[in-house]
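Friendly challenge for the regulars: who can give me the structure tokens for this chain first? No prize, just bragging rights.
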Amino acid sequence: MKLRLVATLLLLFEILSIRSSFAQDPNKPKPKGQKQYTIQQASSERAQLNTMAFNGLAFITGSFGADCFFPPGKVADFFGFQYMRDNDKNEMGHNTDFLTRIAENVLMILSPEQLQQLKDLANKQAPVYDAFAKKRMVLIRAFRDELEGKIPAGKKEFSKEEVRKFCSELYELDAELSYDRAMVEGKVIYSFTESQKAALAKLEFSNSSTWPDLPETLDKKSMTHRAHVCVMTYLSELFSWYAGSVDADAYFCPERHGTYFGGFYLKDFPAMGNHNYKISTSLTGNKGNDFIQVLNHEQAELLNTIVKDQEPLLKEIIQIRTDVAKELRKAQANETPDKEKVFSMIKRYGELDGEMSYNYAVCFAKINNTLTADQRNQLIKLRDLDIIPKGSYLFSDPIDMPEIKGADLLFK
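First reply, four minutes later:
Bragging rights claimed.
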């Protein structure tokens, strides 16, 4: 009898301890077992293989215009927003209203002077954003020429070294955006009053259900479209950076690299202009796996080889992102991050992304050249999106087809 009573008391104590641990730490996963996304999961062989395969599907069945479609939030992404989005306990991170909701809550807390600093930054960075989008089009043109076998006159083959160099130059723009944003947002964070900190503390980093649903109040007429997008981005990232951590800043989703192949168009286009639309988190993995099933053994092995070979590149990327995140966070304490160091690291980041992207492009071209008519028909059916843009995209904004110059320089 005594033994049974002791066992019962021990079981009761264990249950209470578990409940207490969850109550004390709101950032822990819910007991129901919600999946926690980490940089280790994102860089795993399985996640990378399915993501690469999804990009292959988008690239082979898509177009240059679709390849250019790109969310602006994937640029200068060292501020924890992607981690906050992927690990939202409310499971609304991939809802089209997620960014707007937290941005409007932060907007209500900022002073007019603090908001003006963000607007001034947006006016400065808007043209840099556009320059980034236009420069990546040169790379996309070269990748699609490689896919279609359009070797420029006087050239012999696609050059990995030229792509690495070009991407390093592209990421120098990313470094400029990241550094200047950290300096301004760090200044705003350092100036928070106690009442502002108390208001922000009511908004949980990991649970968007704690964010009141507020109307949009930012005056769009007082700024350009790009500047408005920038300010909304700053507002949302101001919170994720302030309430997050180095680990959150360094985190990336599986599709963060090799973004030149139309995967974002295939995944995100149906959400464009649709309020309260939830983008599927399983679409990339499912369609990527289905793409692999259409391939024969030799074709699928091309993908497997690339994914295995890129492991050391991803490890270096993780280290770079962590080091950049630590350096930029100095701005929150009114310290000055080492600009030369930040630029050097992010340019190296660009080289690594360029090498991975080059390998993807060559791999996709080899697969495309060996597809049978039946395989190609299966892939078109699997794409399940027959909307092919007539023009192109500047980030997610439709534009006329631009004239692209310089893509031939990426061949040797």
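Confidence is low (pLDDT under 50) at residues 1-33. The radius of gyration is 23 Å. Your move, everyone else.
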